[in-house]
Amino acid sequence: MNTMQLTVDNDVDKMEKYSQAVDLLNNGEVVAFPTETVYGLGAVATDDAAVKKIFAAKGRPSDNPLIVHIGNIEELALYIEEIPEVAKRCMDAFWPGPLTIVMKAKQNVLAPSVTAGLQTVGMRMPDHPVALELLRTLKKPLAAPSANRSGKPSPTKAAHVAEDLAGVIPCILDGGSTGIGLESTVLDVTLEQPVILRPGGVTKEMLEAVIGFVLEPNLEEQKIESTPKAPGMKYTHYAPNAPVYLIEQEPQIIAQAVLQLQQEGHRVALLAPTPFCDLKANFFFTFGDESNVEQMGAVLYDALRACDKTDATIILATSTELQGVGVAIMNRLEKAAGGKWYK
Ligand code: TXA
Ligand code: MG
Fold first, then answer.
1. What mean pLDDT comes out for the span 167-196?
2. pTM reported for the whole predicted model
3. CA 145 to ligand 2 center in whole angstroms
4. Would you report the helix, strand and coil content of the chain in percent, each value rounded to 5?
């Protein structure tokens, strides 16, 4: 299959490009598009055959449900049985934006593959001009996971989507780099207490300022059977080809680790803040400023993907504080590393 890459950022003929994408979607095809978090791979959420193409293109397990994206808050009532008060307050505060809200789905409206057999569905209104223009031109909901092959880091640039899916999907809308760089926060409001199933750009602190106490199970608590979890969180994620190890943000510890690994015959890729660039790793990819977690979130997946273009045999990634967006960053890094720390 030939993959069209259509640049829509600041393009004078962009309406023509949107209508090409909309025609493909209306014909049961999938289209990749940018959101403010990461690129998504969309299909019309009421078309089961189209939604199945998403799972096939990504190699995604069929028990992992998809998020449904809408272009206007009013559309929500078409898909949700009863919109809880907490959800309304969250939508007022954070939509459009990087917050997915899991609610009870209306029966027999969305394609069965979207919800993967669950009674609930995650809904989100993205805050990106291209995503919103696409949704509002299409006038239908889009089921869309991140537009990467399953297991790989999510795409933050059209080129990342092409790396994974060129030849497999018909169209990528290129709207430049995504801003946040980490997937949306997933909040389940169907339980007694609202629970963060996946941390993201909308933090626990931000949510609690609006709806009061919110549960956020840490990685240890997530191992407990009874902890509410997103079905997708059990799978390997964000993994480059070489093994990733987390390491403390401590120049001496890192310098020593690099030396020891090189003596063992390794080629080391180091992912760390810019001031750590002189520690003699074979490859260095920056996480940006030392104390700017938003910046780190924006470049994290690009840095992980860049390792695959090197012949590094091991990757060291520095940890960050568990504050604000730092929680989401550490969640992704722990997964990329499979929980391994360099000792
Ligand atoms: O920022 C984002 O959320 C991006 C953009 C494209 O919107 N999408 C994204 O989708 O990250 P995906 O499929 O890669 O991740 C969705 C996560 C998965 O872990 C999935 O298991 C969980 O949300 N999820 C979806 N529906 C759910 C539901 N009904 N209950 C619990 N978890 C759900
Ligand atoms: Mg994903």
1. 97
2. 0.96
3. 6
4. 35, 20, 45
